[in-house]
Amino acid sequence: MSALVDIQGLSRSFGRSPVLDRIDLRIEAGEFVALLGRSGSGKSTLLRVLAGLDEADAGRVTLPKRRSIVFQEPRLMPWKSVAANIALGVPNARASGAVALALDDVELSHRSEAWPLTLSGGEAQRAALARALVREPELLLLDEPFASLDALTRLRMQGLVRELWRKHQPAVLLVTHDVWEAVTLADRILVLEDGRFRREVHVALNHPRRRTDPHAAALEAELLAELGVEQADHHQHHNPHSERIEP
Ligand SMILES: Nc1ncnc2c1ncn2[C@@H]1O[C@H](COP(=O)(O)OP(=O)(O)OP(=O)(O)O)[C@@H](O)[C@H]1O
After folding, report:
1. C-beta 16 within 6 A of ligand 1
2. Are residues 209 and 106 in the same domain?
3. CATH number reported for the structural domain that contains residue 10 in this entry
4. Cβ of 42 below 6 Å from ligand 1
5. How far apart are CA 243 and CA 198, in angstroms?
6. Which residue numbers delimit the ABC transporter domain (predicted)?
7. pLDDT at 109 over 70
8. Closest atom, ligand 1, to C-alpha of 45
9. Is 141 found in the same domain as 24?
């Protein structure tokens, strides 16, 4: 059966430096994939190609038509109300009630007519999430969507994204620097390094995932080590779900 996202041999260079080097990636419908990698490893470049904001130099890319992206910043139009921002580019979204449903989904109905500049950081990101959801994406691309939020708001947003994913069941590709975020949310975690996927981990842990679960904590430590972050209390547990991908 064909996957929702099927990428084969995708390469992208800027000038003479290759950023993505013959990458293969399949994502099934409804799958939640997290993408980790050091700064500059090409995560956003990959997401931009998948969003159609950038083109690959080489490779075959099969993508669903309905895709949405949420960035680190909300990128709302300041001269339009929250509801009008969410309706942008989606014909009849207000009349059909789709905007109201999306606002309800992100618990922002009471701010429907507000101006974006009057929203808190968390509210603005929830509006950006509603704008993505109103398109009923089969593939939801999230480029560090919680990175600029405070820790408490970030936790709430992670819970909200998981709830919305269960409700709407899009495939999700989440770029994050936060290893624990990847461990708590994803079915599968990929680590990008030097333009290739160096590691693929299938996360078969029950939800909610907690750091008190030794398997979850060991996986986090292992991924942190992979990214070059050593923890003081780092225990080396072998994770049977994790495979190293040699170039
Ligand atoms: N439009 C561009 N022109 C030139 N170089 C670019 C362009 N976009 C990205 N790059 C370069 O490609 C490399 C990968 O960038 P990218 O933003 O994809 O990394 P990233 O993994 O998302 O990093 P971060 O985690 O810091 O956001 C970087 O070296 C960056 O400077």
Report:
1. no
2. no
3. 3.40.50.300
4. yes
5. 9
6. 5-219
7. yes
8. 18
9. yes
- The reply to whether 58 and 87 lie within a common domain is no
**Nearest CA residue ID for atom 5, ligand 1:** 14
Segment 55-93, tens digit of pLDDT: 999 999 999 999 999 999 999 999 999 999 999 989 888
Q: Which residue has the tokens 């994790």?
A: 242
**99 assigned to some structural domain:** yes
Output the CA angle 96-66-55, nearest 5 degrees.
140
Whole-number pLDDT of residue 234: 45
| Token output for 44 | 């956003």
State the average pLDDT for the chain.
Answer: 92
- Per-residue DSSP letters for 85-103? HHHTTSTTTTTTTHHHHHH
Residues 35 and 149 grouped into a single domain:
yes
Among the atoms of ligand 1, which is closest to the Cα of residue 54? 1
